[in-house]
């Protein structure tokens, strides 16, 4: 297992992280389906493989994911980094959702109890909240850090402009900074390369990836003919938008590369992500031990420069304005003189 610093911090995390979203049971049975006994097997295997970074959220299976993960890590709590999230609706009352001071304090206390710990290593705001001033959210997060209930903070699913505004405010106020952004990123979902990745690189914010296999699509187990199979996750939780026909064309190339390495399509898809210099850690979740083992083996797969370039070109997102304008009007003479590509 390889390790890295998360953003501009001293927090050392494994390049592959364990996502516990599948733990528990609930209203999305194709996602929440791993009970405690099987979860123990998965966590033990992840620990044995060198994973020290475990991710969950209060909204996963209505808190059951946190409870199960906390129990299973048990005496090994201080050996690992636990990330959890807040912001999703957790009850019927108006105040039981969002990023207000009240809800963040309440959610943090509840997560600490469910996880069976007195501190959270990385506390992540799960989504944006248009109904709460940004300053209120950031001050509340800073206070949780100062109280010792939270060690580091991050965000998930925020647009680059909002994250940049937040980081600037944190610097100006001397508040605890975001060290992490957890974003959806995959071979067939590269939107964050437009603005989010450049911001993170400039701002010293580490990128952790959720959905690296696009909800299982990049595992190679789906075909054009059985996407609606009720046993498959995409039949009940097709959450990530992409052109399926284009996706299958991408998979043809992924499978060819996998065959060359005697690897699986999932391993190639994960190896491509791990080869990206802007990626800190990739979350791998699974409901079966065989899936976890397959994903873990991606850490040892080295794609060639040409294979990475082929996948880059095949899946490169169309440039957006004003990005394409800046590229077209780049001063070529200056770029050549500075050896900028």
UniProtKB/TrEMBL annotation:
Q: Which organism is it from?
A: Paenibacillus solanacearum
What is the E.C. number?
A: 1.1.-.-
InterPro entries reported for this sequence: AKR_Detox_Biosynth, NADP_OxRdtase_dom
**Care to name a GO molecular-function term for this sequence?**
oxidoreductase activity
Superkingdom of source: Bacteria
* The protein, known as: 1-deoxyxylulose-5-phosphate synthase YajO
Keyword list (alphabetical) reads: Oxidoreductase
Question: Broadest EC class?
Answer: oxidoreductase
GO cellular component labels: cytosol
Q: Which residues cross the membrane?
A: none
Residue span(s) of domain NADP-dependent oxidoreductase: 15-314
Q: State one Pfam family annotation.
A: Aldo_ket_red
The reply on keyword Oxidoreductase is yes
